[in-house]
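Much of the work behind modern protein science is quiet bookkeeping, done one molecule at a time. Below is the pair of lines this work produces for a single protein:

***
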Amino acid sequence: MYVREILAPRGSPVENGKPLAGTWDTAFAQVSLLDIHRPYSCPLPRWIRDWRIKEWENFSIQNEHFIMEAFLGNFKAYQFSFVILFDKESGEQYTYHQKMPGNSWKLPRKLTHGSVECRSPRFFFRVHTWLNADTVSLDIDIAATKKQPAFTADIAFNMSSQYVTPLTVSLNFNERRNMYAFKALTPARGDIELGGKHTNLDPAHCSGFFRDYKGFFPYQMRGIFCGGMGFDGENRRYGFHVVENQAKETRKNNENALWVDGQLTPLPPVKITMPQGMESDWVIQDLEGMVDLVFTPQKISRFGTQLLITNSDFFTAMGYYNGMLVNAQEEQIQVRNQWGIGEKLYLRV
């Protein structure tokens, strides 16, 4: 059975100018990848090195009625945010997105206490990370368009250690360039309003994923992200998030994990295949017998950018998972028609 070492807490994923590699169950005190000494073979000015670091935060929220994905990213050439809300009962999907040129804001270097916001006259997106107070909050206010109703959300993620064991990783692309990720499955509470219809989010029935990424990602970045959450037959809150990316030595270290009632199980590397294309079944498997899932897309959103120096393609699908997962206690977690999200990202910038 696959086992990955959980390392003792560290203050940063960079020490003495070199990136660390490993897995932790606590957040870093600070994440500044600019502390890496000469990440490229030739010396570069600080502003160029900063421009090569891509960063984003995203959120998945789900209860018995809906599933939502929210994304806020700074790719330095431009900044991009989107919100997708899928109503499980009506089958309706609502999609909002905004793209802004430039590099006007940056994500906090500390999750202990920091905030970031993206705003325009019709689109407001704010994240306040405050792990010192056991909370992460998300505030969204989007005006109505000709095709979409107005949308407002005020959601808090309970980061208390009573409910949450986070996953923090530092993964290397080479000896001097790395990526960092922080992930946590939490109870979520708050309120959303869509087109004048108000919904209260009860943490007893609503779960959320919070994910924070920063990295010296390759110039042509590719990644497939799969995750779902809900409650099992024993009414335990569970969730999983697995990724196929370009990091090295993924058997020794990766960002795949399963949570059951707040308990973290690091998972082995996975292979994600799409035999009939992205709009048909995705097959997600490992070589250890711990991950065996099929994701069936139901609703699809796609965003892209093509400029002189950059090209991007965001493919996001709402759908359901079937199969099984195995936790650290060697218990099989049966996944039956569990709603979740599959994403495929290509970024050249």
The mean pLDDT is 95. Residues 46-52 form the longest helix (7 residues).
